Amino acid sequence: MHQHRGGALWDLTARAGLSDTRRVSDASGDLRLADLGHAGNFEGGVETLRDKSVLISSARQLPAVAALLQLDGIARRLLLCPPDLAPEHLPAVIAEAEVDVIVSDGTGPGSQAPDVMALIWLRDTLLPVSNSPPRRRVTEWLLLTSGTTGRPKIVVHTLASLTGPLDDGLAVANDAVWSTFYDVRRYGGLQILLRALLGGGSMVLSQAHETVSDFLMRAGRSGVTHISGTPSHWRRALMTPAYHDIQPGYVRLSGAVADQAVLNSLAAAYPHADIAHAFASTEAGVAFDVRDRLAGFPASVIGQPGAKADMRIVDGSLRIRSARTASRYLGDGKVLMDAEGFVDTGDMLELRGDRYYFVGRREGIINVGGQKVHPEEVEAVINQHPAVQMVRARARPNPITGAVIAADIVVRPSAQDIPFETIKAEILEACRRVLPRHKIPATLHSVASLEIAESGKLVRPHA
Question: Which of 50, 290, 339, 428 has the most CB within a 10 Å radius?
Answer without folding.
Answer: 290
